[in-house]
């Protein structure tokens, strides 16, 4: 694969769902000499070969901290992201967009050789739900009404301008589908369903049906498999975007089989109205605009990652989602501020 020995790598957002898997994957590779995990808050857990640093990228004084941190670093993996508060997009913009720009600019000042950025399927414009899927040339204008998609799309434009100015930096953009693992379940339940929805409510006997909605087709990937793609992107001389997803694509029928439920056809407007009411009353934190975006996401073709990164998922989409559901029901987590386990929230 052309790995270079003794790489020093900084990973931002290192204590979250993807970050904990990425730092473990990098620290376990003989081609990596040092991993520095960066997060707003230090974790309680330790990972052999990983050193932790607390940095808040939303702060205006963070560039000076980043300059010192990135001196002599070979690669930066930028994962840091805030999903909430969805009712105050200025807060997420300052952290996600302005914080990312600070990381990109600091990487350029430090002369790092590789910048691996966590984009998303959410950056893509609406596209086909059937067929072989779209490749990395599909437009990345997102769904403008959803803050998550809008921010991911904006950063694609930032990197479009960044790459010509810094041709010596190998820029890689990872565009995965939905990422799940057992240990991230409590965090993801809190992000999307809220702190007051018990995980035990996801027992199959309490979920008699799955909404059969036009456009409900999800591509799911186990986070540890995604981490191996990130590791390969750091260690391989590649550039550009990579779609990441496992097979098969999960529609209402597959989701119903997984949950032991039955698919029931519902009008999207009815579901959206219920979600909108819950969001406006702050019963759930997930915005109805994200629901709109999910129904429009294209199916991804991952051929480029298979060929250039020599990457293939080891778990199916059903296995990844099953791990997440088990974690929700048991309150699984890790000893980091984002991933703290919580059965009842």
Provide a brief overview of the structure.
The chain has helices at 17-27, 62-70, 89-110, 147-165, 185-192, 223-235, 252-259, 268-280, 288-294, 303-308, 317-330, and strands at 7-12, 32-39, 50-54, 75-78, 114-118, 170-176, 178-180, 209-212, 220-222, 240-244, 262-265. It is α/β, with parallel strands linked by helices and 345 residues long.
List descriptors:
single chain; 345 residues; alpha/beta; seven-stranded parallel sheet; two-stranded parallel sheet; 38% helix; globular
Care to describe what's here?
The chain is an alpha/beta fold and about 350 residues long. The chain has one domain (about 5-185, about 215-250, about 295-330): NAD(P)-binding Rossmann-like Domain (Rossmann fold), CATH 3.40.50.720. It is about 40% helix and about 15% strand. It contains eleven helices and eleven strands. It has a seven-stranded parallel beta sheet with strand order 3-2-1-4-5-6-10, with helices on both faces. It has a two-stranded parallel ribbon with strand order 7-9. Strand 5 (about 115-120), helix 4 and strand 6 (about 170-175) form a beta-alpha-beta unit. Helix 1 (about 15-25) crosses helix 6 (about 225-235) and helix 3 (about 90-110) packs parallel to helix 4 (about 145-165). The radius of gyration is 19 Å and the shape is globular. The termini are far apart. The mean pLDDT is about 90.
